Amino acid sequence: MIQEITAKELSLRLERGEPTVLVDVRQPWEFEFGAIAGSKLIPLNELAQRVGEIEAPSGAMIVTVCHHGVRSMHAAIFLARSGLENVCSLAGGTDAWSVDVDPALPRY
Protein backbone atom coordinates (compact mmCIF):
# COMPACT_ATOMS: atom_id res chain seq x y z
CA MET A 1 0.00 0.00 0.00
CA ILE A 2 1.31 3.43 -0.94
CA GLN A 3 1.64 5.88 1.91
CA GLU A 4 0.62 9.51 1.84
CA ILE A 5 2.45 12.41 3.44
CA THR A 6 0.65 15.56 4.54
CA ALA A 7 1.75 18.99 3.41
CA LYS A 8 2.85 19.87 6.95
CA GLU A 9 4.86 16.64 7.28
CA LEU A 10 6.53 17.27 3.92
CA SER A 11 7.31 20.86 4.88
CA LEU A 12 9.00 19.71 8.11
CA ARG A 13 10.94 17.06 6.21
CA LEU A 14 12.22 19.65 3.74
CA GLU A 15 13.05 22.13 6.52
CA ARG A 16 15.13 19.44 8.25
CA GLY A 17 17.01 18.81 5.01
CA GLU A 18 15.99 15.16 4.84
CA PRO A 19 16.70 13.68 1.40
CA THR A 20 13.52 14.14 -0.60
CA VAL A 21 12.79 14.02 -4.32
CA LEU A 22 9.63 15.84 -5.43
CA VAL A 23 8.07 14.60 -8.67
CA ASP A 24 5.26 16.84 -9.91
CA VAL A 25 2.99 14.86 -12.23
CA ARG A 26 0.70 17.73 -13.27
CA GLN A 27 0.58 19.26 -16.73
CA PRO A 28 3.14 21.92 -17.72
CA TRP A 29 0.59 24.76 -17.52
CA GLU A 30 -0.25 23.75 -13.94
CA PHE A 31 3.42 23.57 -13.00
CA GLU A 32 4.04 27.03 -14.51
CA PHE A 33 1.07 28.42 -12.58
CA GLY A 34 2.73 27.39 -9.33
CA ALA A 35 4.86 24.57 -7.98
CA ILE A 36 6.57 23.51 -4.78
CA ALA A 37 10.18 24.66 -4.89
CA GLY A 38 12.57 21.95 -6.00
CA SER A 39 9.96 19.85 -7.79
CA LYS A 40 10.80 18.05 -11.02
CA LEU A 41 8.02 18.11 -13.61
CA ILE A 42 7.20 14.76 -15.20
CA PRO A 43 3.54 14.80 -16.31
CA LEU A 44 1.67 11.62 -15.43
CA ASN A 45 1.10 10.77 -19.11
CA GLU A 46 4.91 10.83 -19.63
CA LEU A 47 5.91 9.02 -16.45
CA ALA A 48 6.30 5.54 -17.96
CA GLN A 49 8.72 6.87 -20.59
CA ARG A 50 10.62 9.15 -18.19
CA VAL A 51 10.85 7.07 -15.01
CA GLY A 52 14.59 6.76 -15.58
CA GLU A 53 14.94 10.51 -14.97
CA ILE A 54 14.05 10.08 -11.31
CA GLU A 55 17.30 9.93 -9.41
CA ALA A 56 16.96 9.44 -5.68
CA PRO A 57 19.95 9.19 -3.36
CA SER A 58 20.02 6.19 -1.06
CA GLY A 59 17.47 6.62 1.70
CA ALA A 60 15.64 9.47 -0.01
CA MET A 61 11.87 9.68 0.00
CA ILE A 62 10.25 10.14 -3.41
CA VAL A 63 7.11 12.25 -3.10
CA THR A 64 4.72 12.52 -6.02
CA VAL A 65 2.71 15.73 -6.28
CA CYS A 66 -0.38 16.81 -8.22
CA HIS A 67 -3.28 19.23 -7.69
CA HIS A 68 -5.41 17.28 -5.18
CA GLY A 69 -3.61 13.97 -4.67
CA VAL A 70 -5.34 11.65 -7.14
CA ARG A 71 -2.84 11.68 -10.02
CA SER A 72 0.04 11.63 -7.56
CA MET A 73 -1.33 8.46 -5.95
CA HIS A 74 -1.49 6.78 -9.37
CA ALA A 75 2.07 7.96 -10.03
CA ALA A 76 3.31 6.66 -6.66
CA ILE A 77 1.76 3.25 -7.31
CA PHE A 78 3.41 3.14 -10.74
CA LEU A 79 6.82 4.14 -9.36
CA ALA A 80 6.64 1.54 -6.59
CA ARG A 81 5.68 -1.14 -9.11
CA SER A 82 8.62 0.00 -11.23
CA GLY A 83 10.98 -0.87 -8.40
CA LEU A 84 11.54 2.49 -6.75
CA GLU A 85 11.55 2.45 -2.96
CA ASN A 86 10.26 4.81 -0.28
CA VAL A 87 7.62 6.37 -2.55
CA CYS A 88 4.63 8.29 -1.23
CA SER A 89 2.00 10.72 -2.48
CA LEU A 90 1.35 14.24 -1.20
CA ALA A 91 -2.12 14.10 0.38
CA GLY A 92 -4.26 16.92 -0.96
CA GLY A 93 -1.60 17.94 -3.48
CA THR A 94 -0.57 21.51 -4.17
CA ASP A 95 -3.96 22.68 -2.96
CA ALA A 96 -3.20 21.37 0.54
CA TRP A 97 0.31 22.85 0.33
CA SER A 98 -1.24 26.27 -0.44
CA VAL A 99 -3.65 26.02 2.48
CA ASP A 100 -1.42 24.42 5.11
CA VAL A 101 2.13 25.53 4.26
CA ASP A 102 2.56 28.28 1.68
CA PRO A 103 -0.37 30.57 0.91
CA ALA A 104 1.80 32.30 -1.73
CA LEU A 105 1.43 29.21 -3.93
CA PRO A 106 -1.58 30.04 -6.13
CA ARG A 107 -4.71 27.91 -5.80
CA TYR A 108 -6.78 26.98 -8.81
Largest sheet: 5 strands, parallel
Assembly context of the chains: single chain
How helix-rich are the residues, as a percent range? 25-40%
Q: Could you state the order of secondary-structure elements as H and E?
A: EHEHEHEHEH
Strand content: 15-25%
Identify the CATH architecture.
3-Layer(aba) Sandwich
CATH topology-level name:
Oxidized Rhodanese, domain 1
Instruction: Compute the number of strand runs.
Output: 5
Termini Cα gap:
29 Å
Give the C-alpha Rg: 12 Å
Number of helices: 5
Total number of domains: 1
Instruction: List unreliable stretches of 5+ residues.
Output: none
Assign an overall shape. Answer: globular
| Strand line-up across the major sheet | 1-5-4-2-3
State the secondary-structure class.
Answer: alpha/beta
CATH superfamily: Rhodanese-like domain
Average of pLDDT: 97
Question: Given this structure, which CATH class is correct?
Answer: Alpha Beta
Task: Please explain how this structure is put together.
The chain is of the alpha/beta class and about 110 residues long. The chain has a single domain, classed as Rhodanese-like domain (Oxidized Rhodanese, domain 1, 3-Layer(aba) Sandwich). About 35% of the residues lie in helices and about 20% in strands. A five-stranded parallel β-sheet has the order 1-5-4-2-3. The protein starts with a strand and ends in an 8-residue tail after the last helix.
